[in-house]
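Quality-control log, excerpt.
Job 1 of 2 completed; input and output follow.
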Amino acid sequence: MLTNDQLINHVCCQHSALDNRIIEAMSCYSRDQFIQHNTHAFDDAPLDIGYGQTATAPSLIAAILDIAQIQPEHRVLEIGTGSGYQTALIAHISKHVTSLDIVAAFTQHAQNILQQVRLTNIDLRTQDGRISCNEGVFDRIIINAAVRQVPPVLLAQLQTNGLIIAPVDKRFHKQKIAIISESDPMAIQTTSIRAGFLGLTELRGNDATV
């Protein structure tokens, strides 16, 4: 089993110019705190976390946070809490993060762990990410699910000069991380970062469906 330091060294080798604040966040909050009882927690790979969902590989999380250019004064909306690991990293480098997930068990799990690590600048909710969270506007919105186009309700929640970071194209092997700006939402800037996210899901009754 690898250690957190070994994982961080691996991620830094993958991204040589990574923001030091992201490295610091990964040092403060280790993946095994959020994905417990799993000998592969420090592998740089997606991991099954139940309910048909996977936790994103750490190197991809680092790349997404790096291109998001999150600043200490930023308010961030995260769609897809999952294990809560990425949520903790965002909270460390931003002013506040609101994180939504349609799976109540994920919200509860993340809430428990985040309280243990004493992160208080986080608001967790069990909610469909396609619905406005009524928390005003955000400087950054990070979507942890594949979309063909960004839901208009999320574009409406962007602060002036804000950015949305999302994997575009629902085909699993064709996705690339894209940047959508508030100033010109039709001009989608596709990066070279490949991804394999599941599609954005919606809540119908008590069931999460793709």
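Job 2 of 2 completed; input and output follow.
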Amino acid sequence: MRTPAGSTLPAALVGHQQSIGSDRYRAGYLPKEHDDAHVDFIMIARQVRLVAVASSTSAICLLAAAQEPSSWDFAAWSMTCDNTNHCEAAAVRSDDDESSGPDASLRISRDAGPGAPVVGRIFVQARGSVRLRVQGKLFAASSVDGAPENADIPNSVFVHLLPALIRAKTAEVVTSSGTYELPLSGLKATLLKMDDVQGRIGTGGALIQGGSHSERGVPSAPAPSVIETVRMAAPLPSDSELVDVLTRRLAPACDADASPRELREGTVHRVSSTKVLFLFACSEASANQSFSIWLVDDQAPYTAKLLQFFRPGDVDVNSLFNAEFDGQLLKSTVYGSTTHQCWIETSWAWTGAAFARVKEEGAACPDAAGVSFRLWTASILPRG
């Protein structure tokens, strides 16, 4: 493998990069060839149709504008960097069995830009205190109460813990309910790639390949998109009557080939004094229910427009999986297994004419102790 142009890493440390994008229905960390028991940490986009994911060994460019996220795999570890070049790395595979996830994991996160701190979080299904044992030495993390997301590592501890982990061959997560191995194979290569992606190699802030250069020259984080949102209108008493009317009128528009089971269920959400959103559950396959989202006049002849959902580099898509609308955000979640252990969730905000993506995160298959990764973020600016 040749060293990519623009990369400061040797070819062996470039890793397996996946661009996270699709030409239709980018969905999540889904099973390879529909096999729920064997899943790679590869961002594969699919909902109704399987789509191709572009794979490249080129180093990610340090863009001044928001970009689509990318991911890399190194042995037991994987890393994802989002549209602001915020990077998150975690152990998602067991050292001795790449087809299964570890019982405990560590996620290492860092924002782009000069002087950004490194944040550690332990993921383990346990209650009580959590500590890491590295070559016989114990490092304390915060206590957890059944939620692995609460096991944050204090910065005062992490600055000593991370160098020890980089040097170590083995590590364990110690809880009151048991001790779990923390996979370390690929950690050093992953952190070196994080330094490379964020432009820190040769600086005093690099995690692996530091140097005497100041971090002042490290590229700033790309600015996230700013999404101007509008407030939804208050519901009217007549809105409940629209459900049956719109269901009958829009049922023929459902894609009968998308699923063997047709559900034909809908909900109405008022946008203005004359228009409503209609979330229509057309079909269901395995763990995922397919929705079309319509903008509809609330009076006959009920003119309806099928809304499109756009991501840079993708064609527009016209349906979402497992859609829910709370009056502010439209959330769609697609699952890679019937147990819902791997998923990707996208949040969309209403701009007055369309939905714009404001947040995206996902969890890998096989389940790695509940680890999730940030894939996309945007700033919301309310108006109206």
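Post-run check on job 2. The mean pLDDT is 78.
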